[in-house]
Amino acid sequence: MPELPEIETVRVQLGRVLMGQVCKDIKILNHKVIKGNLDSIKHKGVKGVERRGKVLLINFGPGLKLGFHFKMTGQLIYEEKGKRVVGGHPTEDFVARMPSGHTRAIFYFSKGTLYFNDQRLFGWVEVNPKFVEKLGPEPFEINETEFIKRLGRLRKPIKVAIMDQEVISGVGNIYANDALWEAKTNPQTPSHKLQGEQLTVLLEKIKLVLSEGIKYGGATAADAKYIDLHGLGGHYQEHFRVYDREGQECRRCKGVIKKFELGGRGTYVCPKCQTG
């Protein structure tokens, strides 16, 4: 699933092609991914492209935002005069004729067409998505005091806690694993057992790995396929600390990286140096 850096990359690139365009019409091919009525954005101009956590938002003016959640296999393909920009889960659809068998909704803009594809139908499209209202603050917004307050009262494992989007939004599996390694913290440690100083360091490391993710255009990994809007894979995977490195040597202490399941997600840890 694309995480904060991946969606941020899509936001920037999609903003370059959609800004100022008017949504002329909408065609829904599968109502399963559509939440509510989308007609309110018709004949409205794009004022900007935003992101909240892992949700992409096209701003059509005050109180009117079209939200996309990619989930596991969602993708956006924008086509204008034979040229394309694409983002999301990479498939042959990026270069195939549109619409494809995976196209769930089509948005006709004044200069081009935006296709929302989703193979597994887990993603969704919604005007003013209520999901966004439930999201916690992003790592770059929250201060140390609030972060400690939110995490210090939870009894769930710290990795599960920082991936809870209502606690803090935008942190997914890749960056949670690497941030915990940076903070020398064991993913299984109950959140409430970490001291304030440890949580302060963890917040710093979350910001560090997310910033790197944005810098390198996101990640392309075996279980987190991502390609940015120009079809160019992100390069954060070249900087993984522990994620997707099972059996390899820890870059810090020469220990061996282990993998196990925690909260239903593959979790990577160096048992030698992540003892906090």
UniProtKB/TrEMBL annotation:
Listed GO MF terms: 8-oxo-7,8-dihydroguanine DNA N-glycosylase activity; class I DNA-(apurinic or apyrimidinic site) endonuclease activity; damaged DNA binding; zinc ion binding
Cited InterPro entries: FPG_cat, FPG_Glyclase, FPG_N, H2TH_FPG, Ribosomal_uS13-like_H2TH, Znf_DNA_glyclase/AP_lyase, Znf_FPG/IleRS
Signal peptide extent: none
Keyword annotations of the record: DNA damage, DNA repair, DNA-binding, Glycosidase, Hydrolase, Lyase, Metal-binding, Multifunctional enzyme, Zinc, Zinc-finger
SUPFAM superfamilies according to UniProt: Glucocorticoid receptor-like (DNA-binding domain) (SSF57716), N-terminal domain of MutM-like DNA repair proteins (SSF81624), S13-like H2TH domain (SSF46946)
Ranges of residues in domain FPG-type: 241-275
Superkingdom, natural source: Bacteria
Domain Formamidopyrimidine-DNA glycosylase catalytic per the UniProt entry, residue ranges: 2-123
Annotated PROSITE patterns: FPG_CAT (PS51068), ZF_FPG_2 (PS51066)
Cofactor: Zn(2+)
BP GO terms, sorted: base-excision repair
Catalytically driven reaction(s): 2'-deoxyribonucleotide-(2'-deoxyribose 5'-phosphate)-2'-deoxyribonucleotide-DNA = a 3'-end 2'-deoxyribonucleotide-(2,3-dehydro-2,3-deoxyribose 5'-phosphate)-DNA + a 5'-end 5'-phospho-2'-deoxyribonucleoside-DNA + H(+); Hydrolysis of DNA containing ring-opened 7-methylguanine residues, releasing 2,6-diamino-4-hydroxy-5-(N-methyl)formamidopyrimidine
NCBIfam families, sorted: fpg (TIGR00577), PRK01103.1 (NF002211)
Entries under PANTHER family matching the protein: FORMAMIDOPYRIMIDINE-DNA GLYCOSYLASE
Binding partners and assembly: Monomer.
Family under the similarity heading: Belongs to the FPG family.
Protein name in the entry: DNA-formamidopyrimidine glycosylase
Source species of the chain: Candidatus Amesbacteria bacterium RIFCSPLOWO2_01_FULL_48_25
Taxonomic lineage of the native organism: Bacteria, Candidatus Amesiibacteriota
